[in-house]
Specification:
Elements (H helix, E strand, L loop, with lengths): L1 H42 L2 H8 L2 E8 L5 E7 L8 E7 L3 E5 L7 E3 L15 E7 L9 E7 L4 E8 L1 E2 L2
Length: about 160
Amino acid sequence: MLAQHHVEYGKKAQSEIIGTAIILILVIAGIVVLWSVFQSVISTSPEESCTHAFDFSLEDACYNSNDEIMVTVKRKGDSVAIKNLQFNFAPSDSLWSITGKKCTDVRLNNREYGGYCDLTQSGETLSYIFNVADLEKQEAVSVYAGSEKSMCEIGETVIRAGC
């Protein structure tokens, strides 16, 4: 009888040890999964992804003979799909967006106002012309590219007189 009691207690202790080991393994696996998720979120922060994601350059910004601002943007590659170009003028802090739809106060070189404002495609250089008659004299422009959720700066330059 004593030997039978000892076997029952041994099985009970053994099952408790196995249960505890399984719980520890699950907790460790959960920690590893959470760590990998946090690492991937940290490594794809917008600041880091912006340095490699866009193949753009801000070529020039100047006032043309009609006192409009012409900003020239070049796209060297097609590494990421963009949905939006934004132009932020200073000192007025006015923001203009190009989404490939009709524009009223922006036009492409050799086009009229009110037409479509195309987004720069791979290997293409486009000059965007802004009708800024209602704004004070602008001194600089910052250009951004991206989607509605994440915009990355292409560059910033002083707007020079005379194109």
